[in-house]
Amino acid sequence: MRTFFVFLSLLLVVACQRDTVQEAVLVPGESMGPVRLGATRADLAALGLSVGGDPSGQAGDQASYAGPFTLIFDAAEHVESVAVDLSRLSRGLHFARTTLVQSTTYEEAIAALAPCDPPRPYVGGTSTTCQGGGVHVERSSVQHAPLRIRVLKK
To answer: Can you give the pLDDT at residue 144?
Structure first.
């Protein structure tokens, strides 16, 4: 019975955290949603975001998660990059006058985020860098996989 309550508690925490951020604003080279590049775990906690590891264990120690966002920390434990799969934001990712949503195609995303470098194919997909290096757009070769948008320092 105790195991059931622990499982239920974890499920509620994950469900609540996923719904914490339903939409986000993209600022190339600076932030995505409430997550600013250079933020510490304490900064994120102050925003109400709980940072945890990959529950599946597939990403190892490399990636951390806060709500729908995937975070990479540098050696000093500051956010080095923040990414999101568009499918994780129910109201989309806002940039300038555009909203990127789950149904946004790769071509539409790079047009909205222009100027962008030419797309580069790699094993498993295609990617490009936009906004002078402040945004990275990835498309998986897996059919119907969501676009992944990453913010990096310029």
So the answer is: 81
Q: Which of 98, 102, 121, 129 is nearest to 28 (CA)?
A: 129
Q: What is the DSSP string of 90-115?
A: TTEEEETTEEE-TT--HHHHHHHT-S
**What are the Cα distances from residue 12, in Å, to 55, 69, 110?**
14, 18, 36
In this prediction, residue 143 carries a pLDDT of 82
Domain-by-domain residue ranges, the chain?
Answer: 2-152
Residue 15: burial class (beta carbons within 10 Å; 0-12, 13-18, 19+):
exposed
Which tens digits make up the pLDDT trace of 91-111?
Answer: 999 999 999 999 999 999 999
Which residues are 148's β-sheet partners? 85, 138
Spatial distance between the Cα atoms of 98 and 109, rounded to a whole number of angstroms: 9
